[in-house]
Specification:
413 residues; alpha/beta; 13% strand
Length: 413
Amino acid sequence: MIFNIRVDYKMVDIKTMEIVYNDLKELFNNIREKFQINEYVEISTCNRHEFYIHSDAFAIENVFNDFTNENIVIESGEDSVFHLFRMSSSLESMIVGEDQILGQIKDSKKKAEKEGHLGKVLDTLFTKAIHVGQEVRSKTNINKGHISMGSAAVDLAEEYLGDLQDKCVLVIGAGKMGALVAKALAEKNLKAIFVANRTYYKATKLAEELNGQAIFFDDLYKYLPISDVIISATGSPHTIITKSRIEEATNKIKKDTNKDYTNHKIVIIDIANPRDVSEDVKEIGVNLFNIDDLRGIAEKTANERKKEVKEAENIINYEFDLLKNSFKIMEIDNILASLRSSMENIRQREAEKAIVKLADVDGSIKIIDNLTNSIVNKIFFDISKNIKKAACNNDEDLIRAAEIFFLNNNEDN
């Protein structure tokens, strides 16, 4: 059985998500301790945290049924598969049509494979989900205009500052999200763009692409007070910008240069999860926004793309039916492998009985071995063909009957 447990922006705001994520991890760890988890994949982005789990331990459902946290979604079977397909197609994204989620799903799959907890079932599922996302993007206009969380953040900044031309922008975090924001900003004819990252060479690499300037993370205090727009997208587990830090930086610049930025208007857009910026910065006149404030832009984008969403859903439904057949064939292959092994054991036992009764003076042992092997192959060929045909025709009763009839009758005769 495939399970999906998650918390995302649809259920909670960013502040609550930070708290619920711990509950989600606790639930997952509890399940992993109690039951045999064959495979799992974790997906973690700025506005969602999810686990995909595959396990043959059906008792897991009892644990999920007893779980009562209303902020955590628990789905299984077809519902969980549909959700993953919708997610890879960006239909579950805050910004419908954004491309980043597909890359994030690919990265999550690679990480699970590298860590050794991606097996045949989830590998098949995630490979298909990635294919679905690619099909939706190639056959619809769902991502027309390349709208992203990054470009939405820039739009939000323009709503409060007007034209960003001749503005100074500080981007904190040179990861994928920071790079998206920075590239969207670079088209605005800025006065200056500064890039800070804990790993300096990453900041340097991104700054070179943008014609900007990389700065050391420890030098942030020099740029916080003078920036018009600060966009923060790090993976830090704690806040990196606070009211006191901005005040200290402002006072230090005033002391060193005699320039007073106390009343300088600053817009900060925090698109990190957990958040990078403390809410107390509002007390000193900073306009602070986070992922929750992008919902208005998200709703506008969703309304504009309703036709594309419908086309995407048609693709998802078609690909889902194909996946069901793939899983059935996979299940049949397991049955057939066990059946073939069972038949081979019977063949060997019967051949050994016959060989004991014969003297190998004229090659009779080889003849008997070849004969019995040929008989098994011919019988197995017809059985295999008929069971696979039943799978393609959705004949569940025949499949189950074959499994019971062939695999539960292996007693020695």
